[in-house]
Design brief:
alpha/beta; seven-stranded mixed β-sheet; 21% strand
């Protein structure tokens, strides 16, 4: 069976990456691409690397144009997807790459985003440990999927195995991320000009203000549910505290997240590593590196992989997890397509690769 697809926000980075992956998918026909200010222009004018899609023209983003497809991908700025998802009730599968359907808490949405709150959809991180299982089980047959925030899924995948196994204490998580500017989208912003970012590293959203914090807490709460130290009487994210500091660095793509958390008293080094090995030992797209090895962002460029290095710092009594992803692939578009494959019953890795591009 061939599925017809519409991709909104097709002139942007996330939309372009979704299209790049889908162009190689044997079960997908990319029928419609839409945009806002760029509507009416050839797709190739804004995505010149997508040569096989040169025949497509960007149309207006309206519910009427998006309707009538088997699958709709929404790659729109945060707060803009909801107006369309409400009108796509007859579409068999809708995947939102924005934040509109990620959060379960109205209070968190109001505090970090604002505007209209929309119902949470199934979270599109298949490998994430959830209540003794994996998130992919919830994706099977799903009709509405919320693709993750790139920083959020990177940190969540980094620490969820330790939280689920009860070997780390989630009340004192510290994470610092080196991130590329493509994660901020394609809109012109003075702070993202080459002259502003080349040759420097710039922290932003410092002091607990980054919008991905509640998404991480939500994911780690789901990982903890049913695991060690959890009771049904405990609020889902109670006791999960995160100090989150992203730093913009001069690379177009990539996230390198260094996350640490205290070791639970009495837990051995072997038990710590076993938690991550049990979580990801059979996974294709999330891989734990051998002891003493740590990833680089260059190792995942263009790939749908999250590479994880694990260290145990007994002097500080903390676990240190270093994770590298391509923010546009595993961080967003790759996760969306991987989740689509699962929802449709297709081979999970169809059109996705573990191989990066080097040098």
């Amino acid at each position: 069976m061939t599925y017809s697809v519409a991709v909104s926000g097709a002139s942007g980075y996330a939309g372009g990456e979704i299209l790049r992956i889908l162009a190689a998918h044997p079960d997908i026909e990319i029928r419609t691409v839409t945009a806002h200010s760029n509507a009416g222009q050839p797709l190739i004018q804004h995505q010149p690397h997508l040569r096989s899609l040169a025949h497509l023209t960007l149309q207006d983003t309206t519910p009427e144009i998006l309707a009538g497809h088997d699958i709709v991908f929404l790659a729109l700025p945060h707060g803009q997807s909801g107006q369309y998802t409400d009108a796509l009730g007859d579409t068999p599968l809708v995947i939102d790459a924005g934040a509109d359907h990620r959060l379960e808490s109205v209070a968190d949405w109001d505090a970090f985003y604002g505007g209209d709150f929309h119902e949470p959809w199934v979270y599109g991180v298949p490998e994430l440990p959830v209540a003794g299982a994996k998130q992919r089980e919830r994706l099977i047959g799903a009709s509405r999927i919320a693709a993750p925030g790139c920083n959020a899924s990177t940190v969540s995948l980094s620490l969820a195995p330790g939280v689920a196994a009860g070997v780390v204490d989630p009340s004192d998580i510290v994470t610092v991320l080196a991130v590329g500017p493509s994660g901020a989208g394609k809109s012109l912003k003075p702070n993202l000009l080459a002259s502003e970012i080349l040759g420097t590293a710039n922290p932003y959203a410092v002091g607990g203000t980054h919008r991905h914090i509640p998404e991480i807490r939500q994911a780690l709460a789901a990982a903890r549910a049913g695991g060690a130290g959890w009771t049904a009487e405990t609020a889902p994210d109670e006791g999960i505290r995160i100090s989150f500091t992203p730093v913009l660095v001069p690379m177009a793509r990539g996230i390198l997240a260094t996350s640490t958390a205290p070791i639970v008293p009495g837990v051995s080094d072997a038990e710590i590593r076993a938690a991550w090995e049990a979580a990801y030992g059979d996974e294709t797209f999330v891989q734990l590196l051998p002891a003493g090895q740590f990833p680089r962002t260059a190792d995942v460029l263009g790939a749908n992989t999250a590479l994880i290095g694990l260290a145990i710092d007994r002097a500080a009594n903390r676990v240190v997890v270093v994770t590298a992803v391509d923010n546009l692939v595993k961080g967003t578009a790759g996760a969306a397509v991987q989740s689509m494959n699962i929802a449709l019953g297709l081979a999970e890795g169809t059109a996705l690769t573990v191989n990066g591009v080097a040098p």
